[in-house]
Amino acid sequence: MEPRLVGPGPYRATRLWNEIIELFRAGMPLRKHRCRFKSYERCFKASEAVDCLHELLGSNQNFGPEVTRDQTVKLLKKFLKNHVIEDIKGRWGKEDFEDDGHLYRFPPSSPLKSYPKKPLCGKEVIKFPDWNEPKAGHSQEHIPVKSVAMNSEMWYKRHSIAIGEVPACKLVFRRELTQTNIEEIWKSMTLARLQKVLGLDSLDEVLDTKLVNSKHIVQNVYNVNKQGIVTLEDKSKELPHWILSAMKCLANGPSCSDLKQPTYSGFERDVFKTIVDYFGQMKEPLLTFHFFDIFVSVLGLLQKPSKAVEALQISCLLLPPENRKRLQLLVRMMARISLNQDLPPLSETVRTRTLMVQAFSHCILCSKDEIDLDELLAAKLVSFLMDNYQEILSVPSALKSSIEDHVVHLQRVQIKYAAADSEAPLPPPSFCHQISTSEFEYQKATGSQEPLAALLEEIVMNKEISVKDKKKKLKQFQKSYPEVYRVRFPTPESEAMLFPEKMKQKPPILMWALKKPFQPFHRTRSFRM
């Protein structure tokens, strides 16, 4: 059985759990073993299981080579607890698995997890600014213009400037957007972009959008200092000064002058333990329980780093500002410590980078309900965060520009034509979907040429204008839209048929005009032979 990449989507942790079980059962060698003078068929040693599963996880693109042997042992403990494996006497249910020579076997069928039936979060309809309810004291001149589906008559009046006429129109001012309106726009467009990057039809099964606070998004975007770190309005939620000093001390290494460092050996390890203990006592991870599924879903994009970075950028904007700031400071410290060659080693047996991942993964990402792959998934995400923290924890400039442009567009003065259907329903917001080239060309042709063709036909069939004016309008239309005109009148003959020439009646020829003037009779001579 070949491992496959489990992409973004609902229940990704469950799908990964089931795949690892299937791969482990298929790849674990089974043979005969002896224990206490007794032989056991089709079983394996605990150490052999660790070797096999560790190699399997390291070569699996969903987890990668950074999975440690200790993490593999912890996963096998969960396998034993969930009856994926059992000892040779059929016992299971406890996490007493150790990396030793004890014998284990597979039960007749290792139970795969069923996909949980989550209660529907309910699709929250993002409320856009309602232009149908003018404020008290405002005249109807300030109502906005709604989008309309134009018929040929409206198209004719909108484009009549091309044929020499300008319909009556007036300037219309949008109602001023409130801060709530702007926050709702930020929320709706941010979630729409996240859904597109993840490639999902809906976010409903990976995110309860009702729990997304639009104020948090706006604060995370605009309330930042020069380094891009969030500035909090509530100073009581800031990290304690002594923790900040300790983090700065380790991040900047022995050269840090913020603290008067003692000279005793092991000082850095004590400071590191203090930081680990502080973050470890938090009741909720920095990425919060609510957003666990969305961040696990993003892990399915790690094979496409640019998309994964953008998805994490947007997802981190959803966090409460105090969580985002702590995440920024913590991940920056972890990355700097990992690269600090002057810092004394913080562990005798574990590399510094691995130690950072093991120490802080649980306080960054974990599920409220115990998930068997929590630790591996968190380690994968934290490793990627450390490698790309400067970009991930910054504000996505493309998203910010697009939303700001949209807000400006809503506030811009519009032109309202007299023929505009003010009662046309406002279409709901929609999202873009990729289409084929042929479909694009078809939409391009039908979407622009059909209304123009209808306008041309209306000019042709209009009997209320004189022939002279009709010829003038047709000539101007031909100059503005030659392709549409050529379809309607492919030949000069077809154009001439529109204006058949009337037979000109020649004046009657008078008989007297044909007659020669009277001449006197002259006798002629005859010659006779």
Textual characterization of the structure:
The protein has 529 residues and is mainly α. Among the domains are: 14-105, Arc Repressor Mutant, subunit A (Orthogonal Bundle), CATH 1.10.10.10; 181-404, Rho GTPase activation protein (Phosphatidylinositol 3-kinase, Chain A, Orthogonal Bundle), CATH 1.10.555.10. Helix content is 47%, strand content 5%. It has helices at residues 12-27, 46-59, 69-81, 152-158, 179-198, 214-222, 241-252, 267-280, 292-298, 305-317, 321-339, 352-364, 374-392, 397-411, 437-461, 467-480, 482-488, 492-496, 511-514, and strands spanning 31-35, 38-45, 86-87, 103-105, 169-172, 414-417. Strand 1 and strand 2 (38-45) form a beta hairpin. The longest helix has 25 residues, at 437-461. The chain starts with 11 loop residues before the first helix and ends in a 15-residue tail after the last helix. Mean pLDDT is 79; it is low at 120-129, 131-148 and 421-429.
Topology:
Elements: H1 12-27, E1 31-35, E2 38-45, H2 46-59, H3 69-81, E3 86-87, E4 103-105, H4 152-158, E5 169-172, H5 179-198, H6 214-222, H7 241-252, H8 267-280, H9 292-298, H10 305-317, H11 321-339, H12 352-364, H13 374-392, H14 397-411, E6 414-417, H15 437-461, H16 467-480, H17 482-488, H18 492-496, H19 511-514
Helix pairs in contact: 1-2, 2-3, 4-15, 5-6, 5-10, 7-8, 7-11, 11-12, 11-13, 12-13, 16-17
Question: Which structural traits does this protein have?
Answer:
19 helices, 529 residues, Arc Repressor Mutant, subunit A, mainly alpha, two-stranded antiparallel ribbon, DEP domain-containing protein 1B, GTPase activation
